[in-house]
Amino acid sequence: MTGALLGNILNIVIAVLLVGTIVMAARLSLHLRDFRNSRRDMDKILAALSSHIEQASRAIDGLRENARGSGRDLQEVINEAQAVVQELQIMTDSGNRVAARLESGALRTSTAAAPQVAPAIEKKAVSEAPRSAAGTPAFTIRDTEFGKADDKFFDEDGDDEDFAPSNLQSRAEKELFAAMQGSSRKAGKH
Predict the structure, then answer these.
(1) Is the dihedral of CA 175, 177, 178, 184 positive or negative?
(2) Helix (H) or strand (E) holding 173
(3) Cα 168 off chain centre by
(4) What is the pTM of this model?
(5) Stretch among 104-108, 139-143, 149-153 having the lowest mean pLDDT
(6) Closest CA to 173 of 106, 114, 108, 107
(7) Which DSSP string corresponds to 34-60?
(8) Could you tell me which of 117, 133, 147, 148 has the fewest CB atoms within 10 Å of its CB?
(9) Residue 164 DSSP SS3
């Protein structure tokens, strides 16, 4: 009986080990199935990631192209702005030259009306002023009130015995002459 008992114990141990192996195989089968499912999910995730990477790459290429186009557009706007700045600078320079000529003409007109006030300015203005073919100044300023009925010249005292020189044309020139005559008379009385 020892041999039969020992055989039965061995059969029981083998049966327990077989049951343990079957349980482990079943658990391993479940883990392998979960792994396969996870692998399928991972494949789906990798495919989606790959798709998103491709879309991002296309979007980056589109952004680069848009940036290049915007850069070209911006450069065109900058070039146009620079052209406008140059035109404005030319216009400003021309305006300054015209203003200088107008100022020169105004100085000539005022020095022609009152030569005793600033003979040095008159000489400079007359020498720099453009002249017409007849030798008269090419630019004059006229008083808008010239030719009105009250243009008769009266001196400070109200009498008309002192008349303005014949080259005074406007009322403003005559009033300026009268003011200068009044100041020179006051200086002569003192």
Answers:
(1) positive
(2) helix 171-189
(3) 50
(4) 0.36
(5) 149-153
(6) 114
(7) HHHHHHHHHHHHHHHHHHHHHHHHHHH
(8) 133
(9) coil
